[in-house]
Amino acid sequence: MGSMPMMGAARADTSAAPAPTATPAGAAGECPPVRQALVDSGRAVFSGAGSCFACHGPNAKGTALAPDLTDAQWLNVDGSYGSIAGLVRSGVPKPKEYSAPMPALGGAPLSGAQVCAVAAYVYSLVHR
Ligand code: HEC
Q1: What is the pTM of this model?
Q2: pLDDT digit string (tens) for 71-99?
Q3: Left (φ > 0), alpha (ψ -120 to 50) or beta: where does 104 sit?
């Protein structure tokens, strides 16, 4: 499993295929669109399984360990859904302003679906 090349074996019908125009969520790696239900489950991940609250604070307003995620000022991402999901996957090995790194997945064993959900939640904090 897991060795399906993304390019190459395109299945015919390229002519009228809707060109995937630079949709930032594409970089999120198959995250579903941001919807309220996803945001709600992401909030639960943020304050539960993801442990994000431990560093970013219960309302994502930031602590001495990690930045405010509600102020639309970003250090490592452009604020897009895709960039946020990507950051959650990779963590921040070299923080720009804070002293200790953010571990990949916040250090929690999050599933791909949980990563998408928590990214949708963080995205929703600024985009309402
Ligand atoms: C161990 C503390 C810690 C945990 C846990 C943690 N983070 Fe972070 N987070 C950080 C640090 C540190 C940064 C980078 C700050 C810097 O660059 O100076 C960061 C950056 C971010 C950013 C980018 C902010 C920006 O301005 O670029 C997002 C989004 C984010 N975290 C989301 C999350 C989510 C979602 C979780 C839970 C899955 C999480 N974090 C868990 C410490 C943490």
Answers
A1: 0.83
A2: 999 999 999 999 999 999 999 999 999 99
A3: beta
